[in-house]
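cron nightly-structures :: item 1 of 1
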Amino acid sequence: MNHEETTFSIVLVIATFLCSLVTGLLYTFALIVMPGIGELDDGEYIRDFQKMDGIIQNNHPLILLVWVGSILTLLAAAGLGMQQVTGSDRILLIAATGIYICFVHLPTFRFNIPLNNKLQSFHVASMNEDEQHTARAAFEPNWNRWNIIRTGFACLVTVLLLILLSQQ
């Protein structure tokens, strides 16, 4: 294995690991976190989501490293891989990269983050029950829908990357 092949393999392993961590985070929110806080009353739901999202949006260093690192390392692997892989491996790499950007991160930035920001703008203590209910109703089903979509695609990307790794 030459230097370029070794570099590609290392970057692909790191990208797969980081993308898998993002997949796990999204999966955990879809299957545990959101259903769990979904049982809370409207005010508690909004406050709890604001607290969780606040940790993420305040650029927690590990979340930032994993989230941004997954994008950068996958793009780096795709760039390096154009010289290293051919045929079905190249298709897997291009597909995984495209799906990850277009169907995991684009919805995050287009839908989930704006919904998060809107929910963060509410001061629950100054809202009456109807206002809390309206705020939650405008947030929860849309956020969950987009999270399930991006989770499904993130799982697909993880599988594609694992298949690609197994063929290296």
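cron nightly-structures :: done
The longest helix spans residues 129-166.
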